[in-house]
Amino acid sequence: MTAPAEARLSLLDDQVTLRRNRLDPSTARVLGVFAHNVRSVIHAAHGNHANDSGDGSDADAPSLLTLDDVSLRSGRMVAWLRSWRTGLVPYDDVVSAVLGEDGEHEVADLPGAAHAVPLPYALKELSRISPDSIRLVMPVPGDPRGLPASSGLARAGLAVGEVVRCPEFGLIPEVTSRESGSGVQWETVVWRCHPIVFDPLNPLPLVDDFCTVGEAEMQLAQALLQTTDLLVDLDVARWRPELADALMDLRKAGRSHELPPGYSPRAERVLHRAELVAGIVDLAGEDDGGATSTQEANLRAQALRPLAAAARQARLAAYNSPIR
């Protein structure tokens, strides 16, 4: 690890120690988990893999958030489709992995299909596509790269934030929550197919913002270093105490949604870290860090934005990384 990075981490440790001595145990634990997460990501980027086994906190305590809340259905589909098309996993494993814990998946508006079809049938229709042509796209306002501009696919993708892009169409998950008469809850998914139509007068190819897994890991570490002071200054005293358990679950998760065969261990590690950081950003934004004013909330949202962007880039790099 470079001397400047180690110096920033030492400063973080000193600040956290001072803050934790002044806080009640619940909020001090939240701050401690934040600090551990910062160190873990930065050490990993520099080739020193920190221990993720936990820090003695209540491992069995009920939690608010699991990795399912931050994982991407489109990412899972892209990863398993690519591995399957490369010949590394069987068809049945792909169906099981994409379904996950959901009750049912269908694909609507698939070319050549008059009605919505079950996921297993649709996957067979996708078997002709080259694995390198299946990409994850994560459009955000102001940055729809990877999708045709001003298209129905781009508009729908921006609304959801994730797209499975194939050469001639894109698939967008539409999730519906359901509940039985006995109170059992589950989710169903319709993958809506949107055609990719190129303008013959302006046949520009779709351009991805290519970034290697190694570059994405370094960018994630740099973003965390740049916002170290923010993470320390978050007003965690006003957070719900159980967020500490949610953060612990995020830190210890990451192996429940392993990438399929063909992906490198580094891609899997970077994906885990990226989803961890994305979950932290979501939690911080959800409660505004206990902000006492609109101005303070806006400043914190602005400061967290680089972390969100780095986590997004790292997820894209991991899911779209070469299959070997």
Describe the SSE topology:
Layout (H helix, E strand, L loop, with lengths): L2 H18 L4 H21 L27 H13 L5 H9 L4 E5 L8 E2 H7 L9 E3 L14 H9 L2 E3 L3 E11 L5 E11 L17 H14 L1 H6 L9 H10 L12 H23 L6 H26 L5
Parallel strand pairs: 1-6
Antiparallel strand pairs: 1-2, 3-4, 4-5, 5-6
Strand content: 5-15%
Describe the sheet with the most strands: 6 strands, mixed
Q: State mean pLDDT (0 to 100 scale).
A: 76
The topology string of helices and strands comes to HHHHEEHEHEEEHHHHH
How would you describe what is shown here?
The chain contains eleven helices and six strands. A hairpin with a 5-residue loop joins strand 5 and strand 6. It is an alpha+beta fold and 324 residues long. Strands 2-1-6-5-4-3 form a six-stranded mixed sheet, sandwiched between helices. It has two domains: 173 residues, no CATH class; 115 residues, no CATH class.
